[in-house]
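Fold this sequence, please.
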Amino acid sequence: MCGGCVKTEYPSRGNTCLENGSYLMNYVGCIECKKKDFVLITNKVAEDDDGEEIITYDHVCKNCHHVIARHEYTFSVVDDYQEYTMLCMLCGRAEDSISVLPDDPHLMTPLF
Protein backbone atom coordinates (compact mmCIF):
# COMPACT_ATOMS: atom_id res chain seq x y z
CA MET A 1 0.00 0.00 0.00
CA CYS A 2 1.22 3.46 -0.80
CA GLY A 3 0.64 6.60 1.21
CA GLY A 4 2.29 8.70 -1.52
CA CYS A 5 -0.57 8.08 -3.97
CA VAL A 6 -3.33 9.50 -1.72
CA LYS A 7 -4.07 12.97 -0.31
CA THR A 8 -5.14 11.67 3.10
CA GLU A 9 -4.50 8.17 4.46
CA TYR A 10 -7.68 6.48 5.71
CA PRO A 11 -9.93 9.57 5.60
CA SER A 12 -13.05 9.49 7.76
CA ARG A 13 -16.06 8.81 5.52
CA GLY A 14 -18.77 8.80 8.20
CA ASN A 15 -21.25 6.07 7.29
CA THR A 16 -20.36 5.74 3.57
CA CYS A 17 -19.23 2.13 3.19
CA LEU A 18 -18.30 1.10 -0.36
CA GLU A 19 -18.30 -2.57 -1.29
CA ASN A 20 -17.10 -1.69 -4.79
CA GLY A 21 -15.44 1.29 -6.46
CA SER A 22 -12.77 3.86 -5.64
CA TYR A 23 -12.80 7.25 -3.89
CA LEU A 24 -10.97 9.18 -6.62
CA MET A 25 -11.25 12.54 -4.83
CA ASN A 26 -8.54 11.21 -2.50
CA TYR A 27 -6.26 10.00 -5.33
CA VAL A 28 -3.38 12.34 -6.27
CA GLY A 29 -1.77 10.03 -8.84
CA CYS A 30 0.60 7.11 -8.99
CA ILE A 31 3.89 7.76 -7.22
CA GLU A 32 5.61 5.11 -9.37
CA CYS A 33 4.76 6.20 -12.95
CA LYS A 34 3.77 9.81 -12.08
CA LYS A 35 0.45 9.53 -13.96
CA LYS A 36 -3.08 10.20 -12.76
CA ASP A 37 -5.38 7.83 -14.60
CA PHE A 38 -8.10 5.34 -13.76
CA VAL A 39 -7.68 3.08 -10.76
CA LEU A 40 -8.29 -0.61 -11.46
CA ILE A 41 -9.78 -3.12 -9.03
CA THR A 42 -7.91 -6.42 -8.91
CA ASN A 43 -7.70 -9.54 -6.76
CA LYS A 44 -11.31 -9.18 -5.62
CA VAL A 45 -12.32 -11.89 -3.15
CA ALA A 46 -15.71 -12.35 -1.45
CA GLU A 47 -15.81 -14.63 1.59
CA ASP A 48 -18.51 -15.68 3.99
CA ASP A 49 -17.05 -16.19 7.45
CA ASP A 50 -19.70 -17.50 9.87
CA GLY A 51 -22.42 -15.13 8.65
CA GLU A 52 -20.12 -12.19 8.01
CA GLU A 53 -19.53 -11.23 4.37
CA ILE A 54 -15.99 -9.94 3.74
CA ILE A 55 -15.00 -8.39 0.42
CA THR A 56 -11.37 -7.48 -0.23
CA TYR A 57 -9.63 -6.12 -3.31
CA ASP A 58 -6.64 -4.06 -4.42
CA HIS A 59 -6.71 -0.61 -6.01
CA VAL A 60 -3.96 -0.56 -8.66
CA CYS A 61 -2.63 1.98 -11.15
CA LYS A 62 -3.98 1.39 -14.66
CA ASN A 63 -0.61 2.13 -16.25
CA CYS A 64 2.05 0.42 -14.13
CA HIS A 65 -0.10 -1.81 -11.86
CA HIS A 66 1.40 -0.30 -8.71
CA VAL A 67 -0.74 -1.26 -5.68
CA ILE A 68 -2.24 1.94 -4.29
CA ALA A 69 -4.34 0.48 -1.48
CA ARG A 70 -6.04 -2.65 -0.15
CA HIS A 71 -9.80 -2.29 0.36
CA GLU A 72 -11.78 -4.25 2.96
CA TYR A 73 -15.57 -4.16 3.29
CA THR A 74 -17.61 -6.22 5.77
CA PHE A 75 -21.31 -6.85 6.19
CA SER A 76 -23.06 -8.76 8.96
CA VAL A 77 -26.37 -8.93 10.79
CA VAL A 78 -26.10 -8.46 14.55
CA ASP A 79 -29.32 -8.73 16.54
CA ASP A 80 -31.78 -6.56 14.57
CA TYR A 81 -29.15 -4.47 12.75
CA GLN A 82 -27.22 -4.71 9.51
CA GLU A 83 -23.62 -3.73 10.27
CA TYR A 84 -21.30 -2.35 7.57
CA THR A 85 -17.61 -1.41 7.80
CA MET A 86 -15.01 -0.21 5.32
CA LEU A 87 -11.26 0.23 5.74
CA CYS A 88 -9.05 1.42 2.89
CA MET A 89 -6.14 3.86 2.59
CA LEU A 90 -7.71 5.37 -0.56
CA CYS A 91 -11.46 5.13 0.17
CA GLY A 92 -11.23 5.74 3.92
CA ARG A 93 -12.72 4.27 7.05
CA ALA A 94 -16.42 4.13 7.82
CA GLU A 95 -19.07 2.14 9.62
CA ASP A 96 -22.83 2.07 9.52
CA SER A 97 -25.64 0.28 11.32
CA ILE A 98 -29.16 0.02 9.92
CA SER A 99 -32.16 -1.53 11.65
CA VAL A 100 -33.92 -4.38 9.86
CA LEU A 101 -37.13 -3.47 11.72
CA PRO A 102 -39.68 -1.03 10.24
CA ASP A 103 -39.08 1.38 13.14
CA ASP A 104 -35.50 1.71 14.37
CA PRO A 105 -35.55 1.39 18.20
CA HIS A 106 -32.49 3.69 18.47
CA LEU A 107 -34.34 6.51 16.70
CA MET A 108 -37.55 6.32 18.71
CA THR A 109 -38.08 9.15 21.23
CA PRO A 110 -38.80 8.24 24.79
CA LEU A 111 -42.37 9.01 25.86
CA PHE A 112 -41.38 10.13 29.35
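Residues 3-99 form a domain with the Immunoglobulin-like fold (CATH 2.60.40.4240). The mean pLDDT is 89.
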